[in-house]
Amino acid sequence: MFAVMSAAAIGLTGGYYVSAQEYDKSGFCPITEGMTLEYQNYDAEGRKAGMYVLHVTAVSGTITDGTVSYDQYFYDENGQPLFSGDNNVPMEVTVGGPEGTVSRLNEVGRLLKVQDVMSKGDASNIPVELQAGTTIPDGKIKVQVGKITAHISTTGRQVTEQKSITVPAGTFDCFLIKEEQATKSFGTKVENVETWYAKGIGCVKQAVYDRKGRLDHTQELISIKFE
Asked: pTM higher than 0.85 for the full model?
């Protein structure tokens, strides 16, 4: 379910100290109000290529029929805000409505600048129970940015491995999901995405390849905190 969890303290092995008695693990996306995830991106050569911070601001409903609102903050390779003034790019995601999964944002210009900094893939319809070899149904996300509509589809989705993954934020029990993502707006961009997912968190580590199999960039979770 989408839920608000009470604050207390737990620790993650080898990582940042996390303040929450428990967080919602009913799905493979962050849906605990007050949760903040910070990611570091790297280019194909392993150089820092910007940071992405995702903060859960409001949650209602359930994992299969609900709404979650996020604040998103973006920084360049030197840790400086990507946008002057208000660096936030708010996003609202609804699941289970008549249109399926819908992601709503406000500013086209900002989205075009950060679309390759955000985590890829579709965590909204990943089954709660997974094991290596599981085939996941295709995913579809409608992206509404003002009056402009784009569509993201994920196909060929396969769980290929389960193991503990250690990143700067800690050690997490993860499933590796491989999928092809096609983003259609003014044109079509196809990428191959490999993501290590943890329950209640979503992306822990990710590698994105172009349609010819060349590595484009990687991303890893460097901190997880709660209000």
From this structure: yes
